[in-house]
Amino acid sequence: MELIVQVLVSGLLIGGVYALISIGLNLIFGVVRIINFAHGDFLMVAMYAAFWLHILAGADPYLSALIVLPGLFLFGMLVQRVIVQPIQEASANMQIFATVALSLILQNLALIFWKGDFRTVQMPYAMLTFDVMHIIVSVSRLIAFLVALASILLLFAFLKYTFTGKALRAIVEDNTVARMMGIKVERLYLLAFGLGAAFTGLGGILLIPFSAVYPTVGAPFTLLAFIVVVLGGMGSMGGTFSAGLFIGVVEAFGGTFVSPALKEAIYFGIFILVLLVRPQGIFGKGKGTEEIGLK
Amino acid sequence: MKKHFVVLAFALLVAPALLGTGSVLAKNLEIGALYPRSGALALLGEESWRGAEVARLEINKKGGVAGMQVVFVNADGHDVAAARSEAERLVEQNKVAVIIGSYASSRSMAATEVAARKNQIYFELGAIANAITERGYQTVYRTCATAFNFSKSQAKFLAEWMAPQLNKKPSELKVSVAHEDSDYGTSVADSFKNAAKEYGIQIVSVEPYAANTADLSPVIFRLKKTAPDVIIAVSYAQDAILLSRQASELRLGIPLFGTGGGHSLKSFQEALGDKVEGVLNVDFTQYEVNSVFTPGLKEFVGLYKQAFNEEPKSGHSLANYMGAKVLFDILTKTGGSGEAGAFRKAAMSLDIPEGATSTGWGVKFDEKGQNIRANPLIMQWRSGKLVTVWPKAAAVVDPVLPK
């Protein structure tokens, strides 16, 4: 019993970070409707930024968010304006080529500038833990979970109660009608891409106290985030959040009770099942969102 | 045009004759040096080459091999295809006496095959894949340890040192293996299974995992449940760090025993801080080792610093230095010839006991061309340094039971 609770806690904690990174992708994939294969590499860029701010300026990785997040926001807008916008109406294949190229460029720039070394930040709190009724909780992973939760709640409030947020939701539902209603779609695409990059950057900052950074650190997260977004339903932030936690828990249980080597295979299996039964995702917005970009 | 043809014909006909008589050009002994020196493996590929280069500078200062100055024809095996074509070039165009290399096993597998087909001596100084000397190639030799030797050193240490420390017989010792699940981790884990069998050690669980993950807690939970006496870990860099960090966070409390790879790296120690204390590891000879067991190691470090203005980065250069010196010994006996029969005879006649070279390895080639006296040493992270603890002759300090 104790083991089951412990595994659940571990799964939820890492699931929170998955959810945060995936929400970043959903802002891009769900709103701008771009299949961004460089998503994990945004995470890598943020992790390197936090790492170097720590090494060169002595900044605490959490505090470095003050610089890294605005930086990623601008970087995301730049990518949208320079790379994505010109091919916004082009076929999905074109968009995939462009973002795969961006991914390769970012990874190899990192390799040129910072070599293939595995770099870690040593913080005194990195390996701190505490016990709650014999359940061990890692402090840095708990912080990651709580910050992820808080920022996702903030995003919900933004989408629900502000005019801009409502406009973003309108675009998700139907961007043609949204445009007819006078919503400046291109400008909001910029905002969505910037926000998406910033959320992913926050994921990177939360990871860096317990995860090494290297040029290809983001690649597995790209795939993971796509699965989470599609499982939860494109454009559905709540769906993405639940699906992120769900994947974290499935991974932890599958890894512990079946085999660590199969933990990825298990959620891939679930992913295929969901696609078969409910292609728009568990919390999908209904018809049309299941075939984004793949027409 | 006609004039050019005459010059060409002259060159083709006469130059080989001149070379053959060896009157003018034979003062140099050309050896091909094939290492990955650019690309992803450049760091340790270069470090490996440097070791051989130090040996070359040293022998040339002493008058060379059989009266000839040794010259390296350098080749960059930055990927497998390049290793193959460069080996081809060294044999066909440069007609080198011997090829040395290659740090990376994948490069070595390809290059040795080319050499063997052309009856060319390939002298491997650093790649460890078992298969390199197990394909029956008569012209392939290896001075360094194989992957199986790594596992054997580990199993021997567990049976002869750790089991008695825990008041157990080797057969009562419970060992788990946690390994990353690509080709590297899987094959080393298989090696260990065979070695464990030889020493009667029981493996109670095997936990493969994907190295590129942010969470290894499932591995830790499973190990906690199995509760072995020690865990053999086969890891790259980032997963070695993650596994140790989460083991400490989740209070696993079972000693980890690395298998070269990520557990040897400075970045492993830096990432874990004082949590690294006591982690065991098996690897090529490193620099914190008994100098009586490794005569010539101090001199090597001096020569290295002289040549490259910095400290050696890892034990790779030392292993290549030692191996290159063995090669020069053989070539001295053959008068600088890389002819397969003469080379084999000279190589087989070598009989150097352990503790008599700069790596502490002995030299005795078996029929497959494998040096059977290259035993990896057991090391332990102590006060931030990876120090040699076993076997006793090589140890700087005694091993302690890790907490």
Biggest interface: A-B, 39 and 33 residues
SS elements, strand count of chain B: 12
**Low-pLDDT sequence parts of chain B:** 13-25
The secondary-structure class of chain A comes to mainly alpha
Discrete helix count of chain B: 12
By CATH, the architecture of the largest domain in chain B is named 3-Layer(aba) Sandwich
CATH topology name of the largest domain in chain B, in short, is Rossmann fold
Rg of chain A, rounded, reads 19 Å
Describe the structure.
The complex is a heterodimer of chains A (about 300) and B (about 400). Chain A has about 300 residues and is mainly alpha-helical. Chain A has a single domain (about 1-290), classed as ABC transporter involved in vitamin B12 uptake, BtuC. Chain A contains eleven helices and two strands; from the N terminus they run ααααββααααααα. Chain A has helices at about 1-30, 40-55, 65-85, 90-115, 140-160, 165-175, 175-180, 185-205, 220-230, 235-255, 265-275; strands spanning about 130, 135-140. In chain A, helix 2 (about 40-55) packs parallel to helix 4 (about 90-115) and helix 3 packs across helix 8 (about 185-205). The radius of gyration of chain A is 19 Å and the shape is globular. Chain A starts with a helix and ends in an 18-residue tail after the last helix. Mean pLDDT of chain A is about 90; it is low at about 290-295. By secondary structure, chain B is α/β, with parallel strands linked by helices. Chain B folds into two domains: about 1-145 and about 295-350, Rossmann fold (3-Layer(aba) Sandwich), CATH 3.40.50; about 150-285 and about 375-395, Response regulator (Rossmann fold, 3-Layer(aba) Sandwich), CATH 3.40.50. The longest helix of chain B is centred in the first third of the chain and has 20 residues, at about 1-20. The interface between A and B is large, with 39 and 33 residues.
